[in-house]
Amino acid sequence: MRIPAVSNNYLYGKIASGKRIQSAADDAAGLSIANKMKRESNGLDVSADNIKDGIGVANIKDGALDSMQSSLHRIYELSIKASNSMYGDSEKRMIQDEVDQLLQDIESTAVGTKYNEMKLMDGSMADMHIASNPDGTGMKIQMENVTLKALGIDGY
Predict the structure, then answer these.
(1) Cβ(121)–Cβ(146) under 8 Å?
(2) Which pTM value belongs to this model?
(3) Average pLDDT along the chain, 156 residues, taken 10 residues at a time
(4) Chain centroid to CA 94
(5) How far lies 117's CA from each of 14, 25, 36, 43, 63, in Å?
(6) Which of 137, 106, 115 is CA-nearest to residue 53?
(7) Cα–Cα distance between 102 and 97 in angstroms, integer?
(8) d(C-alpha 74, C-alpha 81), whole Å
C-alpha cells in the first residue's frame, strides 16, 4: 500500500492554523458545519451589539422621563399651592411663571432627546425594532409621544 505524497506546505499550514479542517478535501461535511457555526456565532455577536444599543436607548429615555417626572411632580405641587386662597395675583403669577418654565423644560426634553440623531420622544419615530436574534427577528419597542400636547397639558 502506497501513501499518497502530501506537500509540506499543506502540512505546515494545518499545523500553523491549529485547524483540523483546512479545505473541503479534508472533511466536506465538517467544513460545512464549521462554516454554519461561524455564521451563527457572528450573528449572535451582532445581536448582542444590537441589544446593547437597545439598552442604551432605554437608558436615555429613562433619564429623560425621570427629569420629566420631576417637573410634573413640581407642577402638581405648585398647582395645589396656587389653589390656596391665601395667595394674591402677583404670587399666583410667580407660580405660573415657574409652571411655564417647567412646561418648557418638559417640551424641550421631549423634543430634544435623541439617540444617533433619532428623536426618541416626540412621536416622530415609529416603533423601534431591535434585531436580537441571529436571523434578524427580535423585539419591538413602542416609541411614545410625550410632548405637552400629547400629554394633554399644553397651555396649563
Answers:
(1) yes
(2) 0.73
(3) 54 59 68 83 90 93 96 97 92 97 98 94 91 89 93 94
(4) 39
(5) 48, 50, 36, 26, 17
(6) 115
(7) 9
(8) 10
